[in-house]
């Protein structure tokens, strides 16, 4: 198969988990013997085509005219993406796979231009991210998401929670939705010296037990819940240190609140870190904590589990499906700082439980969530769709041309 994959982010441009998802899925599909073309955004002013064997990456620059707002910029990006895909790829593709609303317009137009089936992965929804729709911008994004699910031959989501959300807010037929969990590229063990260099760079004391948070510093990821929990924890354990990895608009607010609570000296905010540094911090962690208020899946929890670290997560969304309470992690009610503190304290006081949860989480990751397994499931959907397409009436006999 020759698959066209569309995503607004792709390494080295990393905004959230989407970039890594598309990177590892594309790479794994290529390793299964197929060709993948990724259409994505450039990090600079140049359009670039990169070829890595059967993986081709087309990076485009949409900054041709000023955009008055983000939504206008997104539509401009899609228009440029369509033009460049047509120039670089032509019609020689079998499947179009669009990831989220930011590439919906390009995916839908290329579907009708080429008359090839469109698959959509919905990683999250505007309704879910915002806990409702509150203004014209949010409603516009919601309608674009609905249109993408409507136009797609099949819709892929990462959890039962997301399937229910997509069915409820878009009225998508249940037989159109398929659940394929996100995969994880397991974190490898690193040497003490490699880890120590990263700890020293970020002024993290190496003799403390590290509680690690990884995520965007936005309300729905719940870093503010962890900040509120820290005073409870430090009253019980004086050898614990908190590392908050990520960037986002809430950073100043989180730092200010940690000062008000008198715990600023027990926290490091790293900001953006490289993958190598992130892996070192996972290696150094004693516990990983993900107190999200909205979480379609929770790939960061899998990353921590892949190196045998116990996780404490909110009982919400996809996190609730990944973690079995007391078996491979602990779950707490979302938004409850006291419950989060109690779960962390329980692990700090019971090292045998840390060992048990870490070991079971590690086993689950390798059994269910490797990218090889995720690619196989995705290819299964592609093959099913192509069987339906090749025996149906929608497939054109020739590439469509305009008749006057």
General description of the model:
The chain has 404 residues and is α/β, with parallel strands linked by helices. The protein folds into two domains: 2-183 and 370-391, 3-Layer(aba) Sandwich (Rossmann fold), CATH 3.40.50; 192-368, Glycogen Phosphorylase B (Rossmann fold, 3-Layer(aba) Sandwich), CATH 3.40.50. It contains 15 helices and 14 strands. It has an eight-stranded mixed β-sheet, sandwiched between helices. α2 (70-89) packs parallel to α3 (104-114) and α8 (223-236) packs across α13 (337-349). The mean pLDDT is 91.
Numbering strands along the chain, what is their spatial order in the largest sheet? 3-4-2-1-5-6-7-8
Number of helix segments? 15
| CATH class value of the largest domain | Alpha Beta
DSSP strand tally = 14
What's the CATH topology name of the largest domain? Rossmann fold
Helicity, as a percent range = 40-55%
What does the largest sheet look like? Answer: 8 strands, mixed
Q: What fraction of residues sit in β-strands?
A: 15-25%
Unreliable spans are none
User: What does the radius of gyration come to?
Assistant: 22 Å
* Secondary-structure element order, N to C: EHEEEHEHEHHEHEHEHEHEHEHEHEHHH
First-to-last CA distance: 33 Å
**Classification by helices and strands:** alpha/beta
Describe this protein with a few key phrases:
404 residues; alpha/beta; Rossmann fold; 8-stranded mixed beta sheet; 6-stranded parallel beta sheet; 14 strands; globular
């Amino acid at each position: 198969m020759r698959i066209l994959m569309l995503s607004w982010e792709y390494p080295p441009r990393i905004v959230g988990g989407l970039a890594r998802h598309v990177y590892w899925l594309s790479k794994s599909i290529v390793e299964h013997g197929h060709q993948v073309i990724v259409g994505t955004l450039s990090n600079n002013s140049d359009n670039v085509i990169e070829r890595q064997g059967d993986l081709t990456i087309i990076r485009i620059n949409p900054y041709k005219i000023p955009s008055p707002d983000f939504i206008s910029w997104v539509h401009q990006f899609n228009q440029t993406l369509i033009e460049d895909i047509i120039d670089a790829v032509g019609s020689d593709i079998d499947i179009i796979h669009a990831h989220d609303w930011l590439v919906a317009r390009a995916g839908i137009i290329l579907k009708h231009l080429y008359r090839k089936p469109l698959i959509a992965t919905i990683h999250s929804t505007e309704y879910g991210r915002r806990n409702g729709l509150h203004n014209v911008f949010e409603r516009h994004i919601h309608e674009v998401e609905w249109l993408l699910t409507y136009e797609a031959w099949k819709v892929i989501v990462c959890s039962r929670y997301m399937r229910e959300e997509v069915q409820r807010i878009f009225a998508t037929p249940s037989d159109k939705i398929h659940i394929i969990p996100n995969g994880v590229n397991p974190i490898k063990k690193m040497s003490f010296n490699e880890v120590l260099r990263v700890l020293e760079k970020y002024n993290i004391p190496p003799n403390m037990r590290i509680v690690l948070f990884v995520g965007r510093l936005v309300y729905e990821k719940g870093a503010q819940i962890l900040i509120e929990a820290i005073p409870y924890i430090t009253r019980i354990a004086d050898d614990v240190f908190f590392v908050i990895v990520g960037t986002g608009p809430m950073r100043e607010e989180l730092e200010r609140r940690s000062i008000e609570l008198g715990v600023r000296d027990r926290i490091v905010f790293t900001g953006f870190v490289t993958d190598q540094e992130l892996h070192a911090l996972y290696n150094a962690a004693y516990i990983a904590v993900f107190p999200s208020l909205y979480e379609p899946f929770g790939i960061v929890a899998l990353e921590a589990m892949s190196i045998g670290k116990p996780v404490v997560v909110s009982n919400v969304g996809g996190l609730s499906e990944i973690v079995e309470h007391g078996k491979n992690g602990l779950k707490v009610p979302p938004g409850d700082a006291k419950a989060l503190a109690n779960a962390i304290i329980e692990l700090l006081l019971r090292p045998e439980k840390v060992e048990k949860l870490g070991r079971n989480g590690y086993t689950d990751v390798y059994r269910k969530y490797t990218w090889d397994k995720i690619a196989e499931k995705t290819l299964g959907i592609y093959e099913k769709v192509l069987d339906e397409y090749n025996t149906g009436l929608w497939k054109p006999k020739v590439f469509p041309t305009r008749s006057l």
